[in-house]
Amino acid sequence: MGDQLRSVVPGVDVLEGTAEAIPLPDASVDAVTVAQAFHWFDAEPALVEIARVLKPGGGLAMLWNRRDESVRWVAHMNELIRWHEFNHSSYDTFDWAAAVAAVGLYTPLEKSTFRYEQVLDRSGLEDRLRSVSYIAAKPENEREEVVALGMTAVDGMDEPFVLPYNTLVFWCSKRS
């Protein structure tokens, strides 16, 4: 990812680190945003480390895009790609407020949900499915089998079609 960022933004300073070991000084940033990733972190150490680098009153935002399964074809596609069998797929039901409160370093977590729609053709949906973390990690032949199976959910649909999401946004501030 660092190489990709450097190629897109020449001269950018890329630091190597993890959520649990951020290579920045204490109280050095105003805000930390984490999109589509916090469910991969070891929550308690990551929250403590983020608080370390945040200035007093600094903000933490966590965001996830969740495919809207109230739309029939989306629910069917998720079944076909076995989304709910993936053990990191429950980020929208995890008690993030309790996890944040447990470390005692932040204001109470707040939450909002926003609608987002991605307009795709078949090729775009194939690429989107290939980018899902647990699918991308599969060997190529298995990945392509899962993508092909998921694509059957849109068989017969007119293109382009809308892939709807609910964007979950959680935020809080570091206590002063």
Keywords:
single chain, 176 residues, alpha+beta, Rossmann fold, four-stranded mixed beta sheet, 7 helices, 4 strands
Helix amount, in percent? Answer: 25-40%
Q: Bin the strand percentage.
A: 25-35%
Query: Would you count the extended β strands for me?
Result: 4
Largest sheet: 4 strands, mixed
Fold-level CATH name: Rossmann fold
Order of the strands making up the biggest sheet: 1-2-4-3
Shape: globular
The CATH class is Alpha Beta
Write up what this structure looks like.
- With 176 residues, the protein is α+β, with helices and mostly antiparallel strands.
- It has one domain (2-173): Rossmann fold, CATH 3.40.50.150.
- 34% of the residues lie in helices and 26% in strands.
- It has helices at 2-8, 43-53, 72-80, 96-103, 122-130, 133-136, 140-151, and strands at 29-35, 54-67, 110-120, 161-173.
- Strands 1-2-4-3 form a four-stranded mixed beta sheet.
- α2 (43-53) links the parallel β1 (29-35) and β2 (54-67).
- The longest helix has 12 residues, at 140-151.
- The two termini are 33 Å apart.
- The model has no long low-confidence stretch (mean pLDDT 93).
Layout: helices, strands, pairs:
Elements: H1 2-8, E1 29-35, H2 43-53, E2 54-67, H3 72-80, H4 96-103, E3 110-120, H5 122-130, H6 133-136, H7 140-151, E4 161-173
Parallel strand pairs: 1-2
Antiparallel strand pairs: 2-4, 3-4
Structure summary:
The protein is built from 7 helices and 4 strands; from the N terminus they run αβαβααβαααβ. It is α+β, with helices and mostly antiparallel strands and 176 residues long.
